Amino acid sequence: MGRPGVSAVLTPTFGTDATARPRLQIGDWWVDPAANELARTGETVRIEPKAMQVLLALADGAGRVVSREELLSGAWPGVVVGDEALTQTIIKLRRALGDNPRAPSYIETISKRGYRLIAAVQSAEIAAQTADGAVEVALPPRLAARTRRRVPRPGLIAGVLLALAAAGAYFFLSVEQPTPSPDAADLGDERHPAPLTVTVLPFESLGTDGEQAYLARGISNDLMTDLSRLPGLRLIRAPSGVPESRTARGARYLVLGSVQRESGTLRINVHLVDTGTNQQLWSERFERPFGDLFSVQDEIVRRLTEVLPGKLTDAARQRLAKRYTPSLEAYDYFLRAQALFLVRQAGVNEEARDLYRKALALDPKFARAYAGLAMTYAMDHRLRPAGDASTALDRAFELAESARLIDPEIPEVYWALAFVHVQSRRHEQAIQSLQKAIELNRSFADAYAFMGGVYSYIGESARAIPLLRTALRLNPDGGYLYFLILGRAYLFENDIEQALINLREAAVRNPIDLETRIHLAAALVAAGDLSAAEWEVVEIRSIEGAFSIRSWLPTYPLRSPQYRARLLELLAKVEVQ
Fold this sequence. Notes:
Blueprint: E1 24-26, E2 29-32, E3 37-40, E4 43-46, H1 49-60, E5 66-67, H2 68-75, H3 83-97, E6 107-110, E7 114-117, E8 121-123, H4 124-127, E9 135-136, H5 141-147, E10 150-151, H6 154-167, E11 196-200, E12 204-205, H7 213-228, E13 233-235, E14 253-262, E15 265-274, E16 279-289, H8 293-307, H9 314-321, H10 328-341, H11 346-362, H12 367-383, H13 389-406, H14 411-423, H15 427-440, H16 445-457, H17 461-474, H18 480-492, H19 496-509, H20 514-526, H21 530-543, H22 549-552, H23 561-572
Parallel strand pairs: 11-13, 11-14, 12-14
Antiparallel strand pairs: 1-2, 1-8, 2-3, 3-4, 5-7, 6-7, 9-10, 14-15, 15-16
Helix pairs in contact: 1-3, 7-8, 10-11, 10-12, 11-12, 12-13, 12-14, 13-14, 14-15, 15-16, 16-17, 16-18, 17-18, 18-19, 18-20, 19-20, 20-21
């Protein structure tokens, strides 16, 4: 039962195009989903599409608690984003609505559960019904000037809305599947002209504790890394949140599973499916003490290699048997740190650094933890421009080199070394490190994507595009960075339409990433849409209030003078100096 004054007259619409939604009245505000606008007497506020989607979800559940998990899975379908993305969206909504979180009139925070919309909600038509049974939509002047019309009776309204819902389509980015160019490296092997193709779906977390999701991701990611080391096998990552029939993307074999941790017990279910015949080749349930996690992972890989066609050499078996660390607790700290590092915010970067240090305190020979720690120092140069950049970068390089010396056979170590090189403006050395990473793992999508980013930094964005396409083919759900790098390359190639498609996708996946917003604003200026570009400037200011492109560029590893001048020229038109 909703609170008094709340009219829950709406139906859930996650996955529905917001432009097909009717206008609403929420408290004092008239809500126009198609225009992403809130309006009341004498005031109009524009909000970003993702904020509108969250507001509509809260309105659909008006009067009840809508969990954070429900909002995240509904507003960011098929995308893994941190809680911070939702928190920032709620902050923006409250700011737009003029709501006080300490004494809310609109959005109430329910500790450890989610949010509840406590303002009255009703459709605009019901709010303004006239006596003759027709509806005169009474909107504020700005909306009324654009949308004033007579609306048919409710029965006809229902029919129209049903037709709109049927016609609505969920927009997603369709990535071209090109033949890899020489830049993208040959994904096969001369000795194995027809490599096995395998997709490992992200393992499902069955635990009631939301924090267990990082464990399921870590186990499936490690399985992908282990399998990628097999000669003659190519890993193709699958996008999350998509039906299994669509995830293989041409892969012959599909690995899927689930993870559950209860107290000291670990339960893992794994299945291997031949997508050509739809036959389940192998299925097994592992239930062991949590301390046996590494041995279980090794056993899963061993069993898969026995069932998959082909033979392994002794050297390959030895490589598969290597664990990154013998310490389960250190591994746990490492997985948590990895998730935090991707947020790319100063405070969260410090938290990730602390977790990497805890991992190393337990295992001083944990190469990947050294590599992760190195990246937090390299990122300091970007996140804390007022700090001592040279000292932080020197420390980052020292730690990355330590990782390489401890274990020179880990592809991710060379990725981290490339990351440090880029922040230090050693772009050619970064490319060499990424080439080494790809030699060790021909299916390393992140390495192809990052190499594309480096080529854009040095003024060769045309070389970046095929690399990003290869990365997206290997990992269709590669995250916002893939789309940011591809959109940036298209921007500098002056293909503005493609730039906008990819940069908007990056912004949806990570709405609080400053770099994405900067390039999206520039692309909108290039497209002649100054109004939308000015809105992006508002978003930039909400992320970093004192932002200045001229102070930001010196911390950004864009080396090309032409590209830097292009950014400055475009952003000057919306006064981002």
